[in-house]
Amino acid sequence: MTLAQAVDARLRKGIGRGEFFAVIWPSRGQEAVAAGVGAALRRDDRLVTTYRGIHDLVGKGVPLTEILGEIMGKSIGASRGKGGTMHITAPEQGVALTTGIVGAGVPVAVGLALAAKQQGSDRVTAVCFGDGATNTGSFHEGMNLASTWQLPVVFVCQNNLWAEMTPIGDTMNIDQVVDRRLAYAMPGERVDGNDPEAVHRAVTAAVERGRSGGGPTFIEAVTFRFEGHYFGDQQKYLPAEELAAAKEADPIPRYRQKLLDSGALSADELTAIDEDATAQVEAALAEVLAAPAPDLAELDQDVFVNMEGIPS
Fold first, then answer.
1. Is the pLDDT of residue 310 over 90?
2. What's the mean pLDDT in 255-282?
3. Does the pLDDT of residue 304 top 90, yes or no?
4. Residue 137's pLDDT band (boundaries 50, 70, 90)?
5. What gap in Å lies between CA 105 and CA 103, rounded to an integer?
6. 73: which residues sit within 8 A by CB, 6+ positions away?
7. Which pLDDT value is given to residue 300?
8. 52 and 70 Cβ atoms separated by less than 8 Å
9. How far apart are CA 300 and CA 23, in angstroms?
10. DSSP β-ladder status, 188-192 and 166-167
11. Backbone angles phi, psi at 110, to 5 degrees
12. Is 122 exposed, middle or buried (0-12, 13-18, 19+ CB in 10 A)?
């Protein structure tokens, strides 16, 4: 959580003061979901996330140089600087796809789970998306196939209560997003997305279900995004009292206080974790800023110039 927060904060600081250029969709406020999901997955488990997924990438263990490098279009980026924030992949860490299209990651995740099942692997695929994605056709088609074929998929809705600039109440006539699973006879639960332990417990149970052949699970993790839809979004559409209430439930200070109260960590130990996160981000950023842009020869790499070699 701390490392994801540090990455998000440093990016916003650098962009805001003109130190470097990048386009990001801040994940500040949603770190507890990524921490719970990432800790519940094995390295070879697959993850599909969205353009608001920098925290998910950190949680899955993608090196910071690859994340920051890709965001800034550098050759050391996860996709060698050609994908940008919306298209980060990191196969070695199991990150199969970051998608820029709302709801588009769901059918891809279902396909990855089908592949694992056909290969006889116990690999599980987790797919993260927002509440707005559950209104798309691709979401429902994916849910239907995952349930029909009992595929090892964990559907994680990071419900931050806003779909771009539209409140959730204006786009769906149900009280809880998790109720969508009922149409597909799929197990699932709604958890506090600001509580990393609650998210971890739910995802761990879902992963075990999928790995043992029990099929898919739907999890709704209720959280909030603090910095708007994109960096620079002034959020004039968002009631000030709603944002203030959400920040009162900020997962970072809340979990810090829980660790202090339980005696799990001391204030000095927590401060050391914060300082280490900041140092990791600064070291990675320095390496990225010093790295070259992709060579022009990259333009002809990783593209299909004809149909040769493409499975029919």
1. no
2. 98
3. no
4. very high
5. 6
6. 81, 82, 84, 293, 294
7. 80
8. no
9. 24
10. unpaired
11. -65, -40
12. middle
Residue 312 pLDDT: 64
CA pair distance 77, 268, nearest whole angstrom: 34
Of the candidates 209, 212, 245, 207, the residue with the CA atom closest to the CA atom of residue 226: 245
Helix (H) or strand (E) holding 284: helix 267-290
- pLDDT bucket at 90, cuts 50 / 70 / 90: very high
Is pLDDT at 272 greater than 90 in this prediction? yes
**Coarse DSSP helix, strand, coil percentages of the chain, rounded to the nearest 5 percent:** 50, 10, 40
Q: How far apart are CA 214 and CA 1, in angstroms?
A: 30
Dihedral sign (CA 94, 96, 97, 103): negative
Computed on alpha carbons and rounded to an integer, the radius of gyration of the chain in Å comes to 19
What are the φ/ψ torsions at residue 248 (nearest 5 degrees)? -65, -25
Looking at per-residue pLDDT, the higher value among 304 and 241 belongs to 241
Cα–Cα distance list, 255 to 78, 259, 281, 294 (Å): 30, 6, 21, 40
With a CB cutoff of 8 Å and minimum separation 6, the contacts of 207 are 40, 41, 45, 124, 126, 154
Task: Report pLDDT for 11.
Answer: 98
The helix (H) or strand (E) run that includes residue 156 is strand 153-159
